[in-house]
Amino acid sequence: MSDTLNAFSIDLEDWFQVFEENDVSAWDSFESRIENNSLKLIDIMDKHKVKATIFALGYIAEKYPGLIKLFYERGHEIGSHGYSHTQIFRLTPEKFDTELKRTNDAIGSIIGKQPIGFRAPIFSIVDKSFWAFDVLLDNGFKYDSSVYPVLNYRYGMVRSARFKHIITAESGRQIVEIPVTTGRLFGVNLPVAGGAYFRFWPYRVIKWGFNQVNKSGYPGVFYMHPWEVDPDQPDIEMPRRIHLTHYHRLESTLGNLERLFTDFKFSSMADVFGMEY
Ligand SMILES: [Zn+2]
Description:
Bound molecules: zinc ion
Helix content: 25-40%
Oligomer: single chain
Number of helices: 10
Number of domains: 1
C-alpha cells in the first residue's frame, strides 16, 4: 500500500440528475435511488476506514437532510455541488450565486456548518466560466475542485496545473484549486481520477496513475457518484454519447473500489490538503 494520503470525493446526485437535457423541473418524476446507493458507499468506506468529501447537490440536501446528516456524522466533509446540476457556463453569475446560497442554506441548516469546498457539475468551470471563482469567494468558499486538466468534449482546461495551486480570480482575490487526478504519459494528461474512467479503463490504469502521482510526492484526488454502484438503475433514453459512459460496466465499480481502498489510503479533501473545516 502507498503511504501517501489521497483525497476521496463523491458528487452526491441521483442517477437521473446527470443529463443536461433533463432539467430540475422533471426530477420529481423519476425513481429516487440515492439513499440506497449512498448506503452502499457508506458501508464500503466504513469497512476501509475511508473519509471522503461529499459534494452535495442542494436539491438532494433539501430532499434528504437525513442523508447529509448521516454522511457528516460518519466523519465525512460536506461540500457543495451546486443546486440544479446546470453547467456553470450555462448560468449567469447572478443565477450561480442564487444556487450557491440556496445550497449553502440547505447544508448549513442540517449540519450547522457551511461548505468550504465546491465542485461544479461536469467540471464546468472552464475558460468561459472563469467568473465563477469570484462568486465562490463571495460565498465563503476556500477551495474549488472543478477544473479537470484534460481534453474532453464536455469539459477540461488542458493547460491548467495538475496539482493543488492558487487561482487569482478576475477581482484579484485568490482561491485554492484542487484538480482531480491525471496521469502523465507521452506528454499528455490522462484522466485517471474516477467517474466513467474508473469503469472504462482496466483497474491497473487507475492504480498506475495514482502510484505515479504519489511517487512524485503529491496526493491524488478521486471522484465518483452514488449511481455508479447501481447496475439495476432504470435505463432511460438519452443522447447516445452520454448513455455509453453512464451505463458502462456499472457492475464493476464496487469490486474495483475494494481494490482501490486496499491499494491506497484516502481521506477528505479538507483533511488531505490542510483546509480548515
Ligand atoms: Zn455531478
